[in-house]
Design a protein that fits this description.
Layout: H1 5-21, H2 25-31, E1 37-42, H3 49-52, E2 60-65, H4 75-87, E3 92-98, H5 102-108, H6 116-129, H7 131-135, H8 140-161, H9 163-170, E4 176-182, E5 189-191
This protein binds cobalt (II) ion (CO).
């Protein structure tokens, strides 16, 4: 109960396996990380960033929270973005949502869930921005799927509106922000084709000169 022995056993085996395949793997990584990607995803245990894109430790910088939301005042998320963009100099920021997201589902409900309702409000805002499009769909499942996608698209925009990303673009840096959605049922990622790569692709009201 206090030791979680099986996890330590797993860890020892994993470290041994990894060292066997590449003897200097940990030594090299301990000296530096230079990931090309920042992943902003859902905290859901079924959507582990590294595994679903088959990348090794050191290859992807990760931030996860309930329903992959990027809030303008979330110092945690903003600090991750700042470090990834300014220090690690990642070339891609990926916002990856997933179908069947519990956070999105809860945001679609009217009942109380406690503290998290304050977080889910951001998703209800996304619903409100696209209310007509969502309510034009008859089927609840389709509405749920659409909100999972629209939430990703909104968060891609929020990433692009940060001073951090805009500063990188103003400096002429190559930085692309992508919106993806993952299917729990088949393990397949779908590109929502909403990639943004520069200041001229964002709404004028958010563009800083
Ligand atoms: Co989720």
């Amino acid at each position: 109960m206090r030791r979680l022995k099986h996890l330590f056993d797993n860890n020892q085996k994993w470290a041994a396996r990894t060292t066997e395949a590449a003897p200097d793997f940990f030594l090299k990584l301990s000296k530096q990380q230079s990931p090309q990607y920042l992943w902003i995803g859902c905290a859901d245990s079924r959507v582990p960033a590294n595994q679903i894109v088959d990348l090794l430790p050191g290859e992807i910088f990760v931030h996860r929270n309930i329903a992959n939301v990027v809030v303008h005042t979330d110092l945690n998320c903003l600090s991750v973005i700042q470090y990834a963009v300014e220090v690690l100099k990642v070339k891609h920021i990926i916002v990856c949502g997933h179908y069947g997201c519990g956070g999105i589902k809860a945001a679609l409900e009217s009942r109380e869930h406690g503290l998290i309702d304050n977080w889910l409000r951001h998703i209800k805002d996304v619903y409100r921005f696209h209310q007509q499009k969502i309510e034009a769909l008859e089927n609840e499942t389709e509405r749920f799927k659409l909100l999972c996608e629209l939430n990703v698209i909104e968060q891609v925009a929020n990433v692009c509106h940060t001073t951090i990303v805009q500063k990188a673009w103003k400096e002429g840096r190559q930085l692309a922000v992508h919106g993806w959605v993952y299917g729990l049922e088949d393990g397949i990622i779908k590109d929502l084709d909403v990639c943004i790569t520069g200041l001229d692709e964002i709404a004028a009201i958010h563009r800083m000169k």
